Amino acid sequence: MATVQTLDKIRQSLQRHLGKKILLKANKGRKQIITKKGILEKVYPSVFVVKLDDETNGYSRVSYSYSDLLTANVKLQVFKDQNKLHVS
């Protein structure tokens, strides 16, 4: 079971990457995985918000909880070079 300290460590590590370009992979269930590029926009006590580059789905922002990262339902990769789109 995840402790509060574990979730706080995840939140703190995300705060270091605020405003950076990321690659988001989210498991939507039934073998559906979405992959989007965006910018880590906000970090709140319970959730984080990603502003998506691609607005074709009708929404420009998505939010996930830190437990989604802990359970690997959501995976984030920070781009190495913020000007070029190379994934670290």
TrEMBL record:
Gene3D superfamilies referenced in this protein's UniProt entry, alphabetically: 2.30.30.100
Signal peptide bounds: none
GO biological process, one term: regulation of DNA-templated transcription
Descriptive protein name: Veg protein
Species annotation: Romboutsia maritimum
